[in-house]
Write a structure and sequence with these properties.
This protein has 745 residues and is of the alpha+beta class. Among the domains are: 126 residues, no CATH class; 84 residues, Immunoglobulin-like, CATH 2.60.40; 98 residues, no CATH class; 69 residues, no CATH class. The chain contains 31 helices and 16 strands. It has a 4-stranded mixed β-sheet with strand order 2-10-9-6. A 3-stranded antiparallel β-sheet has the order 1-4-5, with no helix packed on it. Helix 8 runs antiparallel to helix 9 and helix 9 packs antiparallel against helix 21. The longest helix has 20 residues.
């Protein structure tokens, strides 16, 4: 045997020997657990994060499960994969795993370990102990606890150390503060370092800190008041609760304001309120006559009367049908609109009629989930035309009706919540027997399919191959016979009063619609690491909604009749920076369809909507369109959603340069301003004085008369122009482009 071959053979034999005997490591050294020590360490270092080796394709040929949710596979990847190249048994300190992480060798993820620190020693000790796998009888992590769980901070720049304790199946506990991973949900308000030290910034409000160790998550809740609660602020809050508050909604909000030492804005005046409520409930501007009559009404309950009237108007049903058509993905684009329009129109009409007739919300959802038959006989079956894959079933159902973003669990355990792949595919199994037949215009275009319950159908776990039983998220598996439709069991589970998601999601969605921000925000992302800003208020609203038999109109009355909904959008000095606690009304830009209808209304020129099959009847409003595929450039520029998902985030309400250009250059807007029978022409032909007409058009656009300075400037401009219609058109154009018109406030 040659000397070189002898050296290779000896090295190979050394690699087969127990590392402790080779290196002389003390066997009394505490054993490092791969599951309880190494996997959490890799998570802390970011190695198994979604931006590194934890992403679906891995990184640089090395792949780990996201956040260590599949430790068996991770062990193989670290120790045996690629002929064990990442671990060097003869000299563990020279293992590729350590050399890369410490930056001795080039590493795309940069330096992750500092040689000699506690994390480095833990990893090195495990390698020196022979990189043992987890044993079947070793203690398992049961849960983690956090100290403290909450705190009210007394001033800016305050700090708070956290302590995380792990509890194991053998009753043992261990301080894992330095091994946990932390994340703030409001980093501008408070951040946290990798040692669990919280630091508060110069803002006030509420925040949460997530702490993760292994598969367990705990949340710290922090409150940062504006300043200490002074006797004067306390006195004013007492007065507000006694003389302004109208319901439990206001009392829960006032309790929050007291903790934060902030005061609410003043109540809005009648002109502000009628414009706000009419836009929020009906998606429509009030007319000048409606404003005048409401302002002149002297009855004490006129706001409640207004809300009741608005809920009975057809525009209410049309406006909220538009909202639900977005969520339910009633879309024509992507297929042949010529074939799709009949179905989308039927479904849009069914949604509108259900809202107009105040169909209880649990029945509304149940009718969609359990729909069978054809679109002609049962329009909710159109939902199954777009929602047709396992991913569609799970993600649309969870996000639309339960407020859960479970998408991550399709491929791996959810990184910020309890949901696993088993949860994902158990919900998919509820829809495994959805059958379809007929209704195809050609090989690829589904039109009027018939939906039925098939005799067979199954879903298997993609990793284990296990056949999944139909089961709702967080609930028990359904006990079914072959004759039972699992979808009906899902609908019944949803409407149970004890369901922790269903009613809360709906009241949060409605609260977000009327107050501008959900109590859980985003509104369809309920998880322990994204807590509600006012848990007591959310629970109270949900409890009342269930007690009212899921009456949607009554829920709207509850919200809109609160004093909180009537607050001015101009904040009190103590709550100027508030974006979480509803101490004022949060202004927001009108949605695309509402804005186009508002422009058409004030200019008295309806929009002509065209489709492949011809024009819609003149006078059709944008909020009445059956789907998103009706061509209109203005709607697209101002954020009309494509309805590709159940997320309301598809609708874009933020400002963009294209919107400004559209207001400046839109041929449709210019045509409305120049129309012979339009409002600008009517004003030009009238022999009334300019100041009277300026008063009228301000009420028409803003719901209020002009301020004296506005009246003077407007009249001076009109007098300076030789072309009377062009002058009025220019004045109207400039006012339409203002924030006061473009926003609901």
């Amino acid at each position: 045997m040659t000397p070189g071959l002898l050296r290779v053979t000896l090295l190979a034999l050394l690699c087969l020997l127990p590392t402790a005997s080779v290196l002389g490591v003390d066997r009394a050294t505490e054993r490092v657990s791969f599951l309880n020590d190494i996997v959490p360490l890799l998570t802390k270092l970011g190695c198994n994060g979604g931006g590194c080796h934890g992403k679906s394709t891995g990184q640089a040929g090395f792949k780990l499960s996201l956040l260590g949710f599949e430790p068996e596979g991770d062990y193989d990847a670290l120790v045996t994969e690629s002929r064990g190249r990442r671990w060097f048994p003869a000299s563990p300190a020279r293992s590729l795993l350590l050399l890369k992480a410490t930056g001795v060798l080039p590493h795309g993820g940069g330096v992750r370990l500092v040689e000699g620190n506690d994390d480095y020693r833990t990893l090195l000790t495990w390698l020196e102990q022979g990189a043992p796998p987890s044993q079947g009888d070793e203690p398992r992590l049961v849960n983690i606890t956090l100290e403290p769980e909450q705190r009210v901070f007394t001033g800016p720049r305050a700090t708070q150390p956290l302590r995380v304790t792990a509890h194991f199946s053998d009753g043992a506990t261990r301080d894992v503060t330095r091994r946990a991973v932390y994340q703030s949900n409001e980093p501008d308000l408070a951040d946290v370092d990798d040692q669990g030290q919280i630091r508060v910034h110069d803002r006030h409000g509420l925040f949460a800190i997530m702490a993760r160790f292994g598969e367990q998550i705990v949340v710290f809740h922090g409150t940062v008041p504006k300043s200490p609660l002074t006797p004067e602020v306390a006195r004013q809050l007492d007065h507000w609760e006694q003389h302004v508050a109208r319901s439990f909604v206001d009392r829960h909000l006032a309790a929050q304001w007291r903790r934060l030492a902030i005061l609410p804005a003043a109540q809005s005046d009648d002109r502000e309120f009628i414009r706000r409520a009419t836009l929020d409930i009906c998606g429509t501007l009030p007319t000048a006559t409606e404003v005048t009559e409401y302002v002149d009404d002297t009855r004490a309950d006129k706001r409640a009367r207004l809300i009741d009237r608005l809920l009975e108007r057809p525009e209410y049903a049309s406006f909220f049908a538009l909202k639900w058509a977005d969520i339910l993905r009633n879309r024509g684009q992507g297929y042949s609109t010529r074939y799709q329009r009949a179905g989308t129109t039927l479904f849009a009409g069914w949604i509108r009629d259900s809202l107009a007739n105040n169909l209880p919300y649990d029945q509304f959802v149940g009718s969609i989930l359990t729909a069978t038959g054809s679109q002609d006989a049962n329009p909710p079956t159109v939902w199954y035309r777009t929602v047709r894959t396992k991913a569609d079933y799970v993600e649309s159902t969870a996000q639309a009706f339960l407020g859960i973003r479970i998408q991550c669990a399709q491929c791996h355990h959810h990184p910020a919540e309890r949901w696993s792949q088993a949860d994902y595919y158990s919900l998919a199994a509820v829809f495994a027997r959805v059958g379809r037949k007929g209704g195809f215009a050609d090989a690829e275009v589904p039109t009027s399919e018939t939906i039925y319950l098939a005799d067979e159908g199954e879903v298997r776990h993609p990793r284990t191959g296990e056949r999944m039983s139909p089961q709702p998220p967080g609930g028990a598996a359904f006990e079914l016979t072959r004759f039972d439709d699992p979808r009906r069991y899902l609908a019944a589970w949803m409407s149970e009063p004890s369901n922790p998601y269903f009613a809360r999601t709906m009241v949060n969605r409605m609260w977000g619609h009327f107050l501008g921000r959900g109590i859980i925000h985003p509104i369809d992302d309920a998880r322990s690491t994204n807590p509600p800003s006012n848990p007591a208020l959310l629970d109270a609203l949900a409890t009342q909604f269930v007690a009212d038999q899921y009456d949607v109109k009554q829920l709207i009355r509850t919200i809109c009749n609160s004093a909180a909904y009537s607050l001015s959008s101009i904040p009190h000095d103590t709550s100027r920076d508030d974006v979480q606690n509803y101490a004022r009304y949060y202004p927001r830009r009108l949605g695309a369809e509402v804005l186009l209808d508002a422009i058409s209304q004030v200019l008295d020129v309806p929009t002509k909507f065209r489709a492949s099959a011809g024009e819609f009847p003149l006078g059709t409003r944008a909020i009445e369109l059956p789907d998103e595929a009706v061509p209109n450039h203005f709607l697209d520029v101002f954020g009309r959603p494509a309805r590709n998902s159940a997320c309301e985030c598809e609708r874009v309400d933020g400002a963009a340069l294209g919107q400004t250009l559209e207001l400046v250059n839109s041929s449709d807007l210019q045509a409305k301003l120049k129309a012979e029978q339009g409002y600008a022409a009517q004003l030009a032909k009238s022999d009334r004085p300019h100041d009277a007409q300026v008063d009228e058009l301000f009420v028409r656009l803003f719901g209020r008369p002009p301020r004296e300075r506005e009246r003077v400037v407007a009249v001076q401009f009109l007098l300076s122009q030789s072309d009377r219609q062009s002058a009025y058109a220019s004045l109207l154009w400039s006012l339409i482009a203002t924030n006061e018109f473009l926003f609901n406030h």
